[in-house]
């Protein structure tokens, strides 16, 4: 049972064209608390046909929404932001119940997600065109930006609030409408956001939420329907490649925020205390279930043992348990499959010669999908944890002996989302930052996400950027106007 003050935030029906709707066939699916295994809700399980209907209603709403002024859209987004922050505690309780992260983290995610609504409420009024130098006295040349149209957004379970607001806010600010399919593991956060958007006065059809376990069929509709002009997705690289292929059939605009394999490079001159704190946050945030998590901690051989000692002590001090309990810093993994996947990676590393330091003994009272924080030392680059995204609380620590070797190890992956370096040498900072093949580099810092920065990766970690002053561009089309006969 989820205990919240505003009971109307706990919705289980899908949200289409301003109405709360069941599946046409009455089908539902259950949502479980990963910390306890208990069922907390049953949500409407919509089909591809119902997704098509939502797209059509969203397209109808777009005809009017696109003509509203930027100031009007900004005012509605601002009201939505205020309502989210007014209901921060209830939203955090819902998030922790369905996702499992510690309540302190959930409160932070609500504020982080709301920051995108606030940012794009402000950016809505700052979408500018240009007057271009003319090529002839009888012509005037200029560009304008227009909303791309209906947007489909497919969002993950690890940040069920922030990954929605990071997409919906710029879409609405630009004048687009949106159809959102949240992960089946975490639909309640998406529905609560939709309810607050409704309360804020955002018109019917502008925001729609399709709850469904029919990911393949609904995803195909969201990526191939010709009324959809933009697809935005956060999730795994393999799924992203499928969606890209589908979207290509109608040449849609796409944004892809895909998998990561983030390195933390700890150089010989680094402040090891600072580096250990940064690696701790980057590795164990959300129980290791983030795309920017420290997937590989790569430490200079001369400070390797000292770093391991400092880092291990910090990991041992973490408190694991049900996220609603006081002081808990690490919750469960999302489900039992995730536990098995992480354990398989850990066992493979040990088979390749790594040593496992299991820092916690799981309490017998913990009934959900918990996995103990684990450190792997002397790990071979041949182990799967070097090349595969772990998505769990296992921290493999590798060695390097020179700057060139460290950079080569960091870049030895098809991914290129986030990376982190720790050093006091500013020459090294510039050199390494420029040579790292990643969209984002944290320098003596691993808490790098914010509404003001362009979040995104290179290589197989995705396309496009979310947030920042650049974030509105992915939801607009530039139109060139040539005025002749002057």
TrEMBL record:
Q: Which organism is it from?
A: Pontibacterium sinense
- Which protein family is named in the record? Belongs to the aldehyde dehydrogenase family.
Residue span(s) of domain Aldehyde dehydrogenase: 20-480
Entry protein name: NAD-dependent succinate-semialdehyde dehydrogenase
Q: Does the keyword Oxidoreductase apply?
A: yes
Q: Which GO terms describe its biological process?
A: gamma-aminobutyric acid catabolic process
Classification via InterPro entries:
Ald_DH/histidinol_DH, Ald_DH_C, Ald_DH_CS_CYS, Ald_DH_CS_GLU, Ald_DH_N, Aldehyde_DH_dom, Aldehyde_DH_Superfamily, Succ_semiAld_DH
Q: Which residues form the active site?
A: 257
Note the CDD domains from the entry. Answer: ALDH_F5_SSADH_GabD
Q: Which UniProt keywords apply?
A: Oxidoreductase
């Amino acid at each position: 049972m989820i205990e919240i003050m505003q009971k109307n935030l706990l919705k289980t029906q899908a949200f289409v064209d301003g109405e709360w709707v069941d599946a046409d066939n009455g089908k539902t699916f259950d949502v479980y608390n990963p910390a306890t295994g208990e069922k907390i809700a049953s949500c409407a399980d919509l089909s591809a046909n119902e997704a098509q209907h939502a797209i059509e209603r969203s397209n109808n709403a777009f005809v009017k929404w696109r003509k509203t002024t930027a100031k009007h859209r900004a005012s509605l987004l601002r009201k939505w932001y205020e309502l989210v922050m007014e209901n921060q505690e209830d939203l955090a309780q819902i998030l922790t119940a369905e996702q499992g992260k510690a309540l302190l983290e959930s409160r932070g995610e609500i504020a982080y997600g709301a920051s995108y609504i606030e940012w794009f409420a402000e950016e809505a009024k700052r979408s500018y065109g240009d007057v271009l130098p003319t090529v002839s006295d009888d012509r005037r040349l200029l560009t304008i930006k227009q909303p791309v149209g209906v947007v489909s957004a497919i969002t993950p379970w690890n940040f069920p609030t922030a990954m929605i607001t990071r997409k919906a806010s710029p879409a609405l600010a630009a004048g687009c409408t949106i159809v959102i399919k949240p992960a089946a593991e975490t639909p309640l956060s998406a529905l609560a956001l939709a309810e607050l958007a409704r309360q804020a006065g955002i018109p019917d059809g502008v925001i729609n939420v399709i709850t469904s376990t029919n990911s393949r069929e609904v995803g195909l509709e969201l990526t191939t329907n010709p009324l959809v002009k933009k697809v935005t997705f956060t999730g795994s690289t393999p799924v992203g490649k499928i969606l890209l292929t589908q979207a290509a059939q109608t040449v849609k605009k796409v944004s892809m925020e895909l998998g990561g394999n983030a390195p933390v490079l700890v150089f010989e001159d680094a402040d090891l205390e600072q580096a250990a704190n940064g690696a701790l946050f980057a590795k164990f945030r959300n129980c290791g279930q983030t795309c920017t998590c420290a997937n590989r901690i790569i430490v200079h051989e001369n400070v390797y043992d000292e770093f391991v000692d400092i880092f291990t002590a910090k990991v041992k001090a973490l408190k694991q348990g049900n996220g609603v309990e006081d002081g808990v810093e690490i919750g469960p993994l999302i489900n039992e499959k995730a536990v098995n996947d992480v354990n398989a990676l850990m066992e493979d590393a040990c088979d390749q010669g790594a040593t496992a330091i299991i820092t916690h003994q799981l309490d017998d009272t913990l009934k959900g999908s918990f996995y103990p924080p684990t450190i792997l030392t002397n790990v071979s680059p041949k182990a799967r944890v070097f090349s595969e995204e772990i998505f769990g609380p296992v921290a493999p620590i590798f060695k390097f002996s020179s700057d060139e070797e460290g950079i080569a190890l960091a870049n030895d992956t098809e991914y290129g989302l986030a990376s982190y370096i720790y050093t006091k040498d500013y020459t090294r900072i510039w050199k390494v930052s420029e040579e790292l093949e990643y969209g984002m580099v944290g320098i003596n810092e691993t808490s790098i996400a914010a509404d003001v920065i362009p979040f995104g990766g290179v290589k197989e970690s995705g396309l496009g950027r979310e947030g920042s002053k650049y974030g509105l561009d992915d939801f607009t089309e530039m139109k060139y106007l040539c005025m002749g006969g002057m």
